[in-house]
Specification:
There is one protein chain. Strand 1, helix 5 and strand 2 form a beta-alpha-beta unit. This protein is α/β, with parallel strands linked by helices and about 350 residues long. The protein is built from twelve helices and eleven strands. The strands form two sheets. Strands 8-9-10-7-6-11 form a six-stranded mixed sheet, with helices on both faces. Strands 3-2-1-4-5 form a five-stranded parallel sheet, with helices on both faces. Helix 1 packs across helix 6, helix 2 packs antiparallel against helix 6 and helix 8 packs across helix 9.
Length: about 350
């Protein structure tokens, strides 16, 4: 792709996406190809929930805005400054994308193209329209990309490497099926928060963002709290009351009713505020509408435990209680250089 400025189509895409937010869509005359794509994208966003019931306008616009902020020339330059891509020989990289949140596979799509490779995409049926739209927009910006981007609904064939995302069960299939190819296989992961009782009201409100964004469907959503002995959840429940309207969304409400009923029938002790249940549990993976919690006695011991369980976790949130943790409210706003599963995708692609 030496004849193509690979950054330019992504910067143009960022400017295009920046025209759209939940409250208003304002056309910028300086944005390329608005005559062809502005109204089409506006209509697609309006239809997103009919394609996937979890893709409410609020959630879709949040994802679009996040990518608009990420796709700037400064961010792309900062991200790629750590790599030497001058000797990359173009290969075809297959992508098997998840569909749990809007545009969840776009970072892999971006990484493949920005490193000079061709991308062969098998999109999830739950999120196939948005990724194909942005691909078409980029091809309009840089027509030569049509040679580098392709989609398939069937079996992946004629590829040199693979990046596949799925459940722990599908990951075992991927590992067997792609054992002879360079690959990155992503499994289930969860995110946790570590509290010490000194968090401010704002911290806990921001923690609610980490819990409820995308209805808790993402691997970066906090699904487990670690709290000190005798921790009172009163401040936590008061802070997250800001997110109470989540219960008015039918799919979330159905999950809340079902999971609460299952817990109660099993005689589990629950803390409940009528839109979120808290259950004491050693697992990191809680169901939708529920967050697990566990008590700890010594923060140093917890630090060691979390380090040993690193392969199960995507993010750790805290007020610097744990090394390399991220601030409250930031889990769903990763930077371009924040890699899923802490696997450097660009380095993998550069080494092919």
């Amino acid at each position: 792709m030496n004849s193509i400025n690979t950054k330019f189509p992504f910067v143009a895409l960022g400017k295009f996406l920046n025209q759209f937010n939940l409250n208003e869509q304002i056309m910028d005359a300086n944005v390329l190809h608005n005559d062809l794509y502005f109204e089409k994208f506006k209509n697609l966003l309006a239809l997103s929930q009919s394609h996937n019931g979890w893709f409410t306008p609020e959630q879709v616009y949040f994802a679009v805005h996040s990518w608009a902020e990420a796709l700037t020339e400064d961010n792309l330059n900062k991200w790629l400054s750590n790599y030497d891509l001058s000797n990359v020989k173009s290969k075809t990289v297959g992508l098997i994308l998840a569909g749990n949140i809007p545009l969840v596979g776009f970072h892999d799509f971006l990484s493949v193209l920005i490193t000079g490779h061709k991308v062969l995409v098998k999109a999830s049926s739950n999120d196939q329209h948005l990724i194909q739209f942005v691909a078409n927009y980029m091809i309009s910006v840089e027509p030569k990309l049509s040679y580098y981007i392709s989609f398939t609904d069937g079996k992946l064939e004629n590829f040199d490497a693979i990046i596949a995302t799925g459940s722990n069960n599908t990951a075992r299939y991927f590992e067997f099926y792609f054992k002879d190819k360079p690959c990155i296989i992503r499994k289930n992961r969860n995110s946790v928060a570590v509290l010490n009782g000194k968090e401010t009201q704002k911290d806990l409100v921001n923690l609610g963002e980490d819990i409820f964004r995308y209805f808790g469907l993402g691997c970066r959503n906090v699904s487990k709290l670690f709290v000190p002995k005798d921790y009172s959840f009163e401040k936590f429940f008061k802070a997250i009351y800001e997110y109470k309207d989540v219960i008015f969304y039918e799919k979330y409400s159905n999950n809340y009713d079902y999971n609460k009923a299952v817990f109660l029938m099993s005689n589990f002790k629950l803390l409940d505020n009528e839109f979120l249940t808290l259950k004491e549990d050693v697992s990191h993976a809680s169901p939708i509408s529920s967050v697990f919690y566990e008590y700890y006695e010594d923060i140093a011991d917890l630090q060691t435990r979390l380090a040993n369980e690193a392969e199960q976790m995507q993010c750790i949130v805290s007020n610097n209680l744990i090394r390399n943790s991220i601030p409250f409210g930031q889990t769903q706003q990763p930077k371009l250089w924040d890699y899923a599963d802490n696997v450097d995708t660009v380095q993998f692609l550069a080494s092919l």
